[in-house]
Amino acid sequence: MNYQLIRKIHLYACLSTVAVLIMFVFTSYLMIHHKTFDQKPIKTTIEIEGVINSEEDWTGLIEAGEIKGRMTKEIQNENEWIREYANAEQFSRVSYDVGTKKTTIVRNDKDLAHALIGIHRQSGYNGSPANFAYAFLLDIVGLSLIIFTLTGVILWFKLLKSDRIAWIIFSAGLLYFAVTIYMLMHGK
């Protein structure tokens, strides 16, 4: 392959990931140093009486409780029905007690720091068009990072064939990667 073409692909793959990587670095910093930014989320509990018979009843509860986000969990047993909803700025749990016919909505509205952390933890394609777009962009960024890495290795091989220090740094990076993956899979 043409060296200049590989260089351009490497550059464009890097440029396409910079904004998202900066966002991940910023939200990761907030996660690591969350006590510095620690504010209390606002917890609201609402109790509603009435029977839930249909999806329209659930929709009415979502509107009454001002619940935001997509449903992340659903549990139904003979005593209780539970649905959890989440987005970056809010987590809500709706519990319906079959025996008492009472619904309890517990809604946690997050402060700015926790909302940014929520963006860091968003995942999956299900949900609103915004969630789909976010997941799709992250997949594009992931693909760009793979291309960036592969073209970077090709450039290393072409430029630094006999540079021992470069090979030591490259080998150390690979070893660090292997140890990190091993620790994530087998560590405690």
What's the gist of this structure?
The protein has 188 residues and is α+β, with helices and mostly antiparallel strands.
Structure description:
- With 188 residues, the chain is α+β, with helices and mostly antiparallel strands.
- 55% of the residues lie in helices and 21% in strands.
- The chain has five helices and five strands.
- Strands 1-5-4-3-2 form a five-stranded antiparallel beta sheet, with helices on one face.
- The longest helix has 31 residues, at 129-159.
- The model has no long low-confidence stretch (mean pLDDT 81).
Mind sketching the topology for me?
Blueprint: H1 3-32, E1 42-49, H2 55-64, E2 70-76, E3 80-87, E4 90-97, E5 102-109, H3 112-121, H4 129-159, H5 164-186
Antiparallel strand pairs: 1-5, 2-3, 3-4, 4-5
Helix pairs in contact: 1-3, 1-4
